[in-house]
Please model this.
Amino acid sequence: MNYEQTLARLCALSGPSGFEEKVTRAAAELLRPLTDEVYFTPLGSVVGVRRCGRERATRLLLDAHLDEIGFIVTGHEEGFLRFAPLGGVDPRMLPDREVVLLTDPPISGVVACLPPHVQSGEDMEKSLPIKDLVIDVGLSQEEAEGRIPIGTPATYRGDCAPLGEELLCGKALDDRAGFAVLLDMLERLKDRELGVDLYVLGSTQEETHSTGAVTAAYEIAPNLCVAVDVTHGDSPDASKHETFKLGVGPVIGVGPNCARSLSGRLKELAGELDMAVQIEVMSGSSGTNAWPIQVSREGVATAVLSIPERYMHTPVEVVNQTDLENTAVLLAAFVERLGEGETIC
Model:
């Protein structure tokens, strides 16, 4: 897997929660050579299925969401756009930030801000609430109303590019990096015989209410699930007790949202592979699609496998390619061992 190329392709596309069509279509094309069937759910999630050919085979679901945080236009004011967040947008990131309005064709905009010369020292220390911000698109009121109607979505402008020798930096790595890991895993298993029916889900709307994963899990009715997402990576200003080092390995979740049998098996496999992993204690909700999938239908044994990521929910998210590769290797081993007849309750 060439992560740089794959993520450059996926992250360049805009797909905020509820408006993921371009991203899911691209994801479907990447899934087709690696699976037996690709289809879309009514809520727009994409599913790739690789069947093992056995009757009543265990159904294993691997999920990574394809949506990203974004914005939605709520009004017009002298040609400027009022907007609301889609997902967990940090207002500190917004002033002077370039965005893309998802019109046809797309229109570029800038979140308006006052230059420091005309701000008081007190103002410069404050973070403006989103309700007080506007997007400048360089249009008159009439042009803005005609070309950018209320309800138009928007995202940060950007894609994904190398940062140093091992890191990748860009928007929407949460969680298209996780989806790229699932593609890598499928490539590694391409010529291997499996003993499970494998469902790879690129889910929609995780950043709002996880509805893409909720509905897809209900339809697939899996026996087991691993949710692949990102978790908080280390940085100089972050708590060492609440973050995980980039380049040290995948992060296995433990807690009530994580089936102990699956978390334990992932840890055992990492030991067999001589692979370093990190452990994240999740005392409640994991904040991932694992939370709703776990209670789908009569319940699904679910694990959380995370990629350390710096600067989550910003336009400059950062991951380590070695972590991505190791996560794919661990998942491939997990799936293949199930294919060799190993069962996990």
Remarks:
- Residues 114-119 have pLDDT under 50 and may be disordered.
- The longest strand covers residues 224-232.
